[in-house]
Fold each of these.
Amino acid sequence: MPRLVVENVAKEFSTRAEPLVVLRGISFELESGQNLAIVGPSGSGKSTLLNLIGTLEPPSSGRVSLDDVDLATLGPADLAATRNRRIGFVFQDHCLLPQCSVLENVLVPALAAGPLATERIDQARLLLDRVGLTHRADHRPAELSGGEKQRAALARALINGPDLVLADEPTGNLDRTTAERVADLLVELQEQDASMLIVVTHSRRLAARMGRRRELDEGRLVESDS
Amino acid sequence: MIRFILASLRYHWRMNGAVALGVAVAVGVLVGALAVGDSMRESLRRLALDRLGRIDLVISADHPFRAELAEELAATNGFADDFNQAVPVFLLRGSLTRPNDEGESIRANRVNVIGCDKRFWQLSARSAPAGLSNRASGGGEPGDYPYGRSIVLNRPLAEQLGASVGDAVYLRLARPGAIPSESPLGRRGAPVSLRLRVGAIIEPAGLGAFALDPSQRSPRNVYVSLETLQDRLDQPGQAGVILIAGRTPVDAPAESEKRLAALLRPGLADFGFDVERSDRGYRTLSADRLVFSPSAETAILNALKKSKPDRPIQPALTWLANTIACRGREIPYSTITAVDFASKPPLGPILDQEGRPVEPLADDQIVLNSWAADDLGAKLGDPIQITYFEPESLDGRLGERTAVFRLAAIVPLAGAAVDRDLLPHLPGVTDRLTMDGWDPPFPLDAERIRPKDEDYWRDYRGTPKAFVSLAAGRRLWASRFGRTTTLRVADAPSRAEVVIEETPPATKKSHGQDARGAHGESLFGVRLPPEAMGFVVRPVKRQSLAAASGTTSFNLLFLGFSFFIIVSSVLLVVLLARLGVELRGPQIGLLLAVGWPRARISRALTAEGALVALIGSVLGVGLGVSYAAIMLAGLETWWLPAIGARFLRFHVAAGSLIVGAGVGLVLSLAAIWLSVRQSCRSSPRWLMAGSAAPRDALSGAIQEKDSLCRALARRVRWMARPCALAMVLLVAAAGLTVAAARLGDEFQAGAFFGAGAMVLAGLLAGMGRRLVAGNDRTAIRPGRGNLARLAVLNAARHPARSTLSMGLVAVACFLIVSVSAFRVEPSGRSSDLHGGNGGFTLVGQSDLPIVGDLSTRDGRSRLGFSDDDNRRLDNSTIISFRVQSGDDASCLNLYRPRQPRILGAPAAMIARDGFAWADAVDRNNPWQALAGAAGATPAPMALERDTATYSLHLGGLGSTYLVDDNQGRPVRFEVVGLLKGSPFQGDLLISEGELLRHWPEVTGYRFFLIDCPGDETAAVRAALDRTLGDYGFAAVPMDDYLAAYLVVPNTYLSTFQSLGGLGLLLGTLGLAVVQCRNVLERRRELALFRAVGLRRWQIAWLVLAENGFLLFSGMACGTLAAAVAVLPHFISGDASIPLASLAGTLAAILLIGLAAGGLAVRAAVAAPLLEALREE
């Protein structure tokens, strides 16, 4: 069973003055089917923590392991493969390729594996169906609404059947109703796939949808009171 | 507003700097190209002025004249008004040899021999040539050289000979002014040889490089004492040329040559005439060339008749009768005169033995004097057989003929029948006291001379023993050299004329008052026109300065070379300006959103752009000067064969700077204005969304509004679709190609290149259209190639930007590929009758005319070939051409030719056929067209196509060209054939007959084509060199001869290609800029790829594939368009496309382009991932 372990992770950035410590002593675990919301004010280090977990940057100290594999020990190719096959990203502003159709955008992570099998197309269409964008498959991102773009981004995050989905403010740019819909979909898909989900948000409403909630306070992860 | 513009200018200094640099490149190339043209023209001008010194005009004649004539001319009233000095010299062509220590001779042919004294150096515009005043170089007083046997060499000649001061050298010259060697009475044989010593060596500058015929190459000059030359050439006190110095260093005033001609008063001796006064009341005028040239005779007769229309004049033609025979008896070596007897004194009558005037003779009648009649025992009515030499020999062989006359009268040796002056002066004959002492130029059988002949010679000298009618004599003995040997002119009864005759020589008379030649010898005070007697006044400085403008406009030439760089740099400016404006899209959008009118924003941005362009232009002027300096350095080093000599000096005219900067500025401003205008038309929303997301229109359509094609489309509706534009351009190109086939060569090349350029534009427009259309295609599909398709899709996101990038590469490729096809490899061509070498293996040229037939054993024997050498030449075909000297009109000479060299093609060449013809009136037998109808006007002429096109600017077949004969009369020729790749570069080819008709004084042969078996080439060269070396003969392999010409166009092509390479550099720079900009704009997308697990190499491949797509597409467009441009050249078989090297070049272009794309790849994979994701 997939399992994410974050142990005593810290992150500091060197500045012209003294080093800036963003995260200190972060530890938690997450297992398949579980989800976690990390909340906190802007600048508290939420996104940094998500990037550390997503191997987009290394921690200054501590350990992030997925299925007992310390991600820090992996080379660039293995890290890329891990991100590609085991981790799905959903960014706040969707980050869709404007020149590609929605379907093509969903398939972008699949390109890393080389020649594209027809089954992957079917799988992408299925995912679009699951996020309710079947009718928008051939549209360009510019032709979608904000919620649709985020749902497309969600489908893209799931195309390789990741064990871990990391969502950074997935509803940050959406109105309340749309945000609700995206949040529902996020949780629903995670439960259906029994994957792990970590959502970074400052939305208390979204955080409330998650099974577990933690708050970043001065770089430390504490139990959220909400 | 101004503060806003200035602030914006400062803030965006990087992008503005890039645009300014682009403008600087455009302006720089324009200014540089014009400056190179200026430098070339000015350098040629300075070179011409330097070599002529203070010499403005030259008086020359086709025969030597008194050197004193120069002093007499300088002493005339009015001379000092325009001129400063008149210096007599000999200007001859010869060869110089130096025996080296190994006993071999080093020979330099085509040496300019300047017979002068120290007055010559006073004509220099600078101080005495370096080396001349250096006493260590050979002793003597500065400026004294040349003197005695001490000569001066200029350095190029000294280096060729390996000569040092003190070395002995041998100079070989033809003897000037003698009776034509093709007359049986003219001298043939080896030239005059002078043993001389090198007294000084001077640098080839100023008069050290003196030459009348302008050429950028340093002449090889030897300066010999005038006195020594006069002595050795048997021309005491004579000169061949008078050099006239002007009063100022600049050219003499216009029309000065006419004023000088009016001051010129040559005497009869200067014309080579001699006048003998008879006590019978007439004078006999004769020429030292034995016969009067037809023009001289006509001029003399006209002048005499004009002065006194009723003056009796009796022309006569006296010839040598080898034998006069009758009744089995014969008289050897007599003179016979053709004359129409006058009926009245003093020129007649001739009385017979009965004292009756002899009636005019019929053509078959002859009169003998009593001595001859007695000797022969001839009676009236007897047939008299005359054996004589043919009056001219074309092959060096003296032909003897016989004519039979009927004896009509016998005249006593008295009265008008006794006139020894009827035989003109014949050196070696008339100057000998006895016939036994004769040293005639013809073969003489001394055994035949009897004592009675000696007696006659003692008593009567050359008095003719027989007379025939003038018509009969001319039919037998007239030649191209003339038809009259003496003119007997009756003394005028006028007292005034006698007075004039007795007037002592005067040198200070007012203009036009000279009634006699300054020499004191004249014919009844009649002024003979010097120009008709072979005197020519040439404004050499003016002609040289005019020639310095070149055969083509150097400005246009180098603008043409730089054209594609200019196009590339303008495209680069467009590209950079667009990027700059796109970069500011959000700001423009914001200004629009807050209510700034579009026009105001457009004005502000355009004004800022204008400032940028202005700065760029100023930079560009400096860059242009550097560019020109580099080009000039290139022309004097890498591309030296194109100009042949190092003579360039930097020069730029203010006009060129202004024009170059102005045109560059206007082009750049247009590019900037267009970019600004398009951006300001976009919606504020798009603009504020930033250039990273230019396509977020809900319609999904691409922002074609930004495309260049769209901008044009607004102006011309029907051209709205790039596809339509492409089609129009391609159809126009096809039309131009068809039309080009009907145009002349000069326009044809331009038309084909124009068609190629249109194809290029059409293909690029089509590619632009494809990019626009391809934007909606699916990139990600099952199977392989998804990243490549995604790359193409990326390229289609900015169709205009991508099209411009492709265009930059395409233009460079177009240039490089098309130019490659025109390169001609000089070596390795086999002997081919209908090829460029015409089946000949050697080309020979001699300095001195060779009178003889090299094609036959007998002819070679007469020229002195040994039996062994003669046998060696048995298997060779040698075709000899007559040569009328003229300017080098080939590509080797940058000066504009005034009158090209003319070759007379002999019948053997016309019959042989051969060489490759670009076009001819009669394609089946082009040479026959040269033979044409004898005497036709205009006369048929053939020449090398490139000479016709680029040097003489002739239109092609049927065009006519005027040259002057030696009397300055125009002769019109019509082009009947155009050769290609032949050894006749720079020459006009006419038939030998036509050449002799218009230039009868040309004797012998100086240009030779030799076909010999390949394995005998060296032996044949050696054999020819051994015997003909004294004539300055040298034979070179045909391939080497042709290669010397091919190296020029090939070097120009290299220049063109090098500049194309510079254009390619700009292209790849533009491509790299675009790619870096794309990567910058898309760095978030690229980061996303990394975030979702694409490997770095996959991202690198994505970026590189896009770069490769643009690069390859550009190369394909350029290559395809180039193929259209060179297609006719290829079809005609002229092209020898170096496929291997071309493929190598294209591969290099691809690699360089991909390497430039590597910058973008590096930027893509090295960008910090998180910052990119956050768009920081």
Note: The longest strand of chain B covers residues 83-99.
Amino acid sequence: MNYEAVIGLEVHVQIKTHSKVFTRVGAGYGHEPNTLTDPVVLALPGTLPVMNKAALDAIIKAGLLLGCEIAPVCKWDRKQYFYPDSPKNYQISQYDQPICIGGSVEIELPGAARNIMGEHKKIPLTRIHLEEDVGKLNHGASDSLVDYNRAGTPLMEIVSDPAMHTAEEAYAYLTSIRHTMIYGGISDCDMEKGQLRCDANISIRPVGETKLGTKVELKNLNSISFVRDGIAHEIKRQLAVVAAGGKLIQETRDYDGQTGTSQSLRSKEMAHDYRYFPDPDLMPVQVDAAWKEKLRAECPELPFDKQRRFLRDYQVPYTITSVLIPERGLSDFFEASAQLAGPGRAQAVGNWIANDFLRELSAAKLPLGASKITPASLAELVGLVEVGTLLNAAAKEVFVAMFATGEAPAAVVARLGLAAVPSDAGELETWCRESIAANPKALVEFKAGKDGAINAFKGPVMKAGKGKANPKLVDETLRRLLAGA
Amino acid sequence: MTAPADLNIDRIAELSRLALTAEEKVRFSAQLGSVLGHIEQLSKVDVTGIEPTAHAFPLHNIWAADIARPGLAVADALRNAPAQRENMIVVPKVME
Amino acid sequence: MSVPLHFQSIAELSEHLAARRISSVELTQAVIARTKAVESRVHAFNSFDEPDALAQAVASDSRRAGGQSCGALDGIPIGLKDVIAVSGQPLTASSKMLANFVSPYNATVTESLQSAGAVLHGRLNCDEFAMGSSTENSAFGPAHNPWDLTRTPGGSSGGSAAALAAGAAIATLGSDTGGSIRQPAALCGLVGLKPTYGLISRFGLIAYASSLDQIGPFARTVEDAAIVLGAIAGHDPRDSTSFKTEIPDYRAELKRRRGPWKLGIPKEYFGAGLDPEVGAAVEKAIAFYRAHGCEIREVSLPHTHYCLDAYYVIATAEASSNLARYDGIRYGHRSKEAKDVLDVYQKSRAEGFGDEVKRRIILGTYVLSSGYYDAYYLRAQKVRTLIRRDFLNAYREVDALITPTSPLPAFKLGEKSADPLAMYLCDIYTIGVNLAGLPALSLPCGFTAGGLPIGLQLIGQPFREADLLATAHAYEQAHDWHTKFPSL
């Protein structure tokens, strides 16, 4: 029998806010233990939550970006379970009235080759809701230490329908969410910092069956590649159990990305009963059209839409767009520079960014924003190359200097004497005429159809230009003159 | 009064994280049985079409602007901790 | 001065202070001396900090000397129920769980009283986590009624009532979830006001049942209650359930609002279980209002019968969740027997909580547990809608309602402690008010033949405390119950 896997993902994304979701002490990563707490975070007796408007704005924006319906009214519920990282021993969450309903995530599967765009599809979402993050346990040899800095950080849970079938789809799904959230300024989605976390619900069923099989929840998929590997491993495990005549049990399994193995967690806990009920300390949220439209106006173009536009409007190759698109700043830089450079030059702009610019940034360990190269200076450089003022080799030298000093390309060219020679097209023409006149034998050969004979004219011209003449321009000029000779 | 048949005191004590003695289980079950017996009256009220009241005076969109303020100094945060080390709360080892 | 300082009202004492006939230090010393004299018999306090109180009094006197006095409460010793956070002071909720807890922050009402210049004096005994009607559920032993030390001062804010009745404070704050201010006020011969839900910030009030809890004053007179209410009422951005509403000058309004009012007598509040002496005293009070020119009308609150049930479902459900934070991890009692984390929870909570708290946690957990939510919690919230509607319907006809506060005068300590249901029935006249979120107060309306105070409950309309207080003031002006003090 043939089996297919069915995968649903629960993705937790920390929302980037200044303060926590239900109190105004600062939120952040990498601070000394327990320095981001207040009486509310620690659930001291008598404390009360107050919503963070920015966290609501962010989740509504996320919902709009993913095409969700934004609920006109949503409320807060308490999800009750005891755990040392949960200060109140209940988590404020949204149970039966989440803020975002439905929607979908567009994904791109790997193409046949690196330079070929893969298949796109839309993975439907069930819901997105807002909740609070918990603290962090540090496990020692004989005890555990609790740090509540993370507790109360706004966290949204994006729940997909069980609509994915391969580890690649799950990987693409998570990647797409990550890019979208970064574009929206909603989260930095750094998995190492726990800003993006993922649990997967995985089952298998005979192809053609519509009912879901026995579900296994896979936890601790804490890097994007672990998500792919963990899910692939779990699907294989389930298929092997069934192939051996075994029966799958509903359980939670912990994936260890280092060893590539998973183990059941089912022995750990008594069965949960979350006893959800509406939090009496918080009031519901009503989202009206005006609020929604204000946020919609702040929403950026989605990464895949931008990519399609770049392919169409700027005619840049797919490989270049797949470098530019994931980083919103980079793609915006490209677009600004391509527009300044003018028609026909976008591809060159893209090449400069994807190759030289990224290489220099990475060597200097600089973020895009700190770079001294501007869209205007890059456009100018591309222009100098296009009109023949700069040779490619020289242009690369100019770029490095621009990157280091922030000088305009023309200034670097002048300072380093890198301009192609002659800078006057009339002088080049004179050199070419002289070279043709000096070599009638080659002229005859060329006229007879031996194209290679043109090289005989180039030597004297290059010599006259002391090696800095633009070969492309020399070639063009010679051909024009030869055609008329 | 005896406990209602469906009051599973062991399960409820477990969910409540209360270690009850055998004597307490018997006593609380009986006492809660009589209270639950009283509460059963609620089933007689016709609540068809009635919305639940979660707040006596419902408001909405009660929030604050996202401006971070200083919190507790670590010493104050941990002042009442039963056990602490390295500015963190110590608990028996949690198995994950 | 014939009445000792410790039995005088805020209105009187603030005049003495303003006229420099006394200093806040003298007044505070007098109240502390009285506290020390009676505390061993009344046990109204869980803790008090004499040097701290005196330092506040000194500060008040120097403000006054500098011409910076803050008003009627400046220099007046006020006690707080031990469920209200005062930074640097113990906060125990009368529970072993929090026996060693020191609050690192202030409740909003604490800050309000401090900015009004009050001298915060002591943290007052109560039923553990405000659950009870007699203060017998305090882990530190019951408070005693100053009118008869063998009897309860009521609860849960029994210490707040007992301290004030005994002269160990000039006013106090309590909290009221199902009658916990009004019932002890009635049993101790005091004015006790439960404001409209949302009028007073709950930030810094240890939560019992969040949708019902409200802080309010105990005072010797209606005027004093108006003064304290004025200092603590108002919107607080730290409490999302706090209401934005104009706060009138409650004290000034007492003289402006003179009635006559249309008063409703809910017939369901005068049935079986009402002590005849209590019933007679309330009837007399009704007769007074009639004679005062008020129109008295019988009204019906048909769902009264279900108040107790709806209350015990909603309150215990919320409590089971609110009290989950007391787990022995970050603060509070941690069992010495605990070997693993589950042990820390189960044993710390078993050792740290008393029986009534455990019972309510169990009941609340049960009604929220899988499969029971709709039958209990959701249904109780719908019944709550009906109960609330009953009151709002009545207010189409009348301005306020008159009822007894408690079916019984103060009962003997130990009399009801073995039977939770009998204890719960003490709250039948007060619970509906919390479910409907309304303001209500209890004021003295007589004594039993045995010399025990009797309380009259006036229930008002949402956020119309000024009218409610004025209605009570009219009665008080014509009676002298508030001028009687227990001998002890």
Note: Residues 1-46 of chain B form a domain with the Histone, subunit A fold (CATH 1.10.20).
